[in-house]
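S., here's the first fold you wanted:
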Amino acid sequence: MSVDPGEMKNIIDSNPAVLSQLRKLLYKFKQEKVDVPSKLSNEVKKKLRSLGYIK
């Protein structure tokens, strides 16, 4: 961060091993099944509404 505080320089080209590892992790993450409730409870809806996420 001290060398590029604005993070303007893309350094991934100089780190192909890191790029490969990150791609593998992202692929694995995308493949994992995430259990999502099919319906939201009234309590959750109320909280989301109060935060402005739903109307």
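And the second, which I think is the more interesting of the pair:
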Amino acid sequence: MENKEKKTKHTRLKYADRIEIQRLIEEGCTKTEIAEKIGVHFSTIYREIIRGGTPYSADEAQRRLTGE
């Protein structure tokens, strides 16, 4: 997902984005680098990481978002 176009304002992250965030965290990327690669503002990544718990889990973030 390198050089992804910037998402429009207030676009929600998809599950595939969360999987990509998890992979990039595991690779040691910074939050700013992840934001650039996903195409969102860095604050979106900060909030997403808080939602996903420590260590970050795409599945946990998705579960918390959907309530499932």
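Why I say that: The chain has four helices and no strands. The two ends are 27 Å apart (CA to CA).

Talk tomorrow,
H.
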